[in-house]
Amino acid sequence: MLEEEKIALLKRELIEYATLVEAMIDKSIRGLVNKERDVLIEVIEKDEPKTNDFEIKLDELCTVVIAQYQPKGKWLRTVLMVLKINNDLERMADHVANIAESGLSLIEERPTIKSFNEILQMAELTKGMLKKSIDSFVQEDSQLAYDVCTRDNMVDELRNLARKEILGGMCVDASTVETSLNVLRIARNLERIADLSTNIGEDVIFMVEGKVIKHKTDKI
Amino acid sequence: MKNKLTQHLGFLFLWIAIIPALFFLGTIIYFVCVKGISIISWEFLTEVPRRGMTEGGVAPAIVGTLYLTMGAILFSLPLGLACAIYLCEYSPAGYVVNVIRMSINNLAGVPSVVFGLFGLAVFVKFLGFGVSILSGSLTLGIMVLPQIISASQEALIAVPQSYREASLALGATHWQTIKKIVLPSALPGILTGVILSIGRAAGETAPILFTAATFYTRGYPDSIFSEVMALPYHIYALMTEGTHPEKQTEIAYGCALILMLLVLLMSALAIFLRQRQRSFYGK
Amino acid sequence: MENSIEIKAEEINFYYGTKQALKNINLEIYEKQVTALIGPSGCGKSTFIRLLNRMNDLIPHNRVEGKIYFEGQNIFEENVDVVSLRRRVGMVFQKPNPFPKTIFENVSYGLEVNRIRNKQTIEEKVISSLNQAALWKEVKDRLHDSALGLSGGQQQRLCIARCLAVEPHVILFDEPCASLDPISTRSIEELILDLKKYYTIVIVTHNMQQAARISDFTAFLYLGELIEFGPTEKLFTVPKQKMTEEYLTGKFG
Predict the structure, then answer these.
(1) Beta carbons of C113 and B169 less than 8 Å apart
(2) pTM above 0.90, yes or no
């Protein structure tokens, strides 16, 4: 196979992987909202192992591409970024599994409506960020990537809000501690997923423009 | 600085060395032309000699030379080429091949009169062909054989081995490779050998002295078993046995001129063919 | 999917006079795959590939021990028709060597020597071979010009077309890009990737990157011995032998 073709294959595999993770987020939030145990269990027992397989496959593929073609310039950056995004996606999948687990616990007891809404908002934002970051990778559009990086702040704020509320609630009513902790956990994991999406955005900018903007996203 | 001077002197010396060669060549051509041109005429070229070689023309001698030369080439070219092909393409490298090659080179060094004696003994007497075009052609043929073999060998060796490999790799046999690729490529070189041989065969006197040539024939030869007049022999005979020296000297020079032109013509033809072959294949 | 074996070399030892050039080579060439032979100069890769179509027969004082199986028969047996073998196992050489003939005649040569006389058949085969070798467009208006007027890369593709015309099963490439510029090299590489759909290909190359790019299997030879053989992806990422690793990282050769 020619170099271009193999790298195109690499990108396709990565996109498939990312699509799976997106679907997982969807399912875990839906399962939580609609109290569907089976969906949440599916996320934990079927989808998450699949992502591990994807990760290994992509790692191997990247290694082979580097060995076979010694890519240079943009293609080198592409392959390296695929490796990094691969890693980020795997961690995201872990976080989604955590969300699903917490979701299972919460099915028994529904928390206060207010903080739950914030969770749902965060989930929407986070999903959007992930999708946009993957889109920016597919389309090699650094503008989209920049957008993702700026969104991160909003997610952080929402999380802080939810945290305040939940802490407040726990102080008032001790019986809600376990529920609150699970909600907190979900919030934390969503925030981590948003962070990782930002990472992906930064990686895409490096791939497309060769510019490193890590650790500087607040200055954009 | 000294190196440059030495180089200039060296080249100058080489230039000077060419002059004697050009001088002699020029002198001979001039001499023959001047002395012989006066006798050249249509009659001279096309009629049989009359009145004891003092009148008429030398047409039979011209024809005789042509027959002898063509006969020599007809005999030696296929034989010499086959020999060269065997030596270059088929025989395994080794002792035997070297012995054969050495023998051929030795053959080239044999004096031409010895060839004449050989021809007399074998073709004229032993095989009973008598003094004839046949005997003369065969004798001349043997004389130029080494030349043809040498030139052909060199031409065959010069064909790049990569052509042979390419041909064999396509599933051609050894002979197909030789016939379709090697020989056509080697043709210019082989023709060179033919050119040189034509010149030699046409101009040699000693080999045809005892085997083919005679001073006077009534007309043109009617078979390969007839004796024949030949230009080189005619010159010799006119100068040594002629009865009318002044007139015959003139005729002799005329013959010399014709002989030179004839050889030139045949060479030119071979060169032309060689050039055409070369230019097509873009060598 | 199991690959079927097209050629199998068993315990091959090869001698030039008294010098041993190949030692106990055991190698399998898989059907419709590209197998690359790599190694430093003098490692025997050219010698080995030339055994596959018995071109080494042309070298005086050569001796072969061992067997090479092709189409169910050991090609070194007495009754093997070498001429027929060479038609089925074609070869493209290091330096392009078109015949001093026209482009058309070059490609039709193989058909001629195999006694195909029908003019129509010949013409069709010439056109299809030139097409397969990705040369047709460039030469279709000058089929009767001398082949020696083509550029290096074109000449090499002509040699490939010439080889394809006799419909071989296997094509051997002996460092086909060694004397070509990078652009011609790339076009030959693309061509090889295309050809492997229909032919089994063995390629000798001193350029290991080339082997990495286009081959499915790679054999690494050193001083006449087969050091390692395996799928290209594995050999270049996790070589099993230390010597292979050293060669790949440029420690020698």
Answers:
(1) no
(2) no
